[in-house]
Sequence to fold (116 residues):
Amino acid sequence: MKKVFSTILAVLVATSIALAFQNSNSSTTQAENANANTTKKRGPVFRANKDQIKQAQTILKTRGFYAGEENGKLDPDTRAGLKKFQEAESLKITGTLNKLTLEKMGIVLTDKQKAM
Fold:
């Protein structure tokens, strides 16, 4: 009888240890998942307006970096011209009309763009 009681007690202790270990692992995993799922909020995205894009295309054209139409659209040819301009002006080469590129071109920023 003593042997049966000892065996049952040993099984109960082993089971409770296994459950406790499993719970501690799952809570760590849940915390890690919560951290991985929380993404950093991005601020507002800087966007050039159509008029600014047209002005930039005119500047790119006069500098020989762009040969397309001045249509106010950031098409692949405009982006390629922007990359050439940015490289020539020692700016970060992004192919986008960001704040620094517009300022370097002498294009007036909107109040909203100035605040960014």
Observations:
- The radius of gyration is 31 Å.
- The CA atoms of residues 28 and 34 lie 10 Å apart.
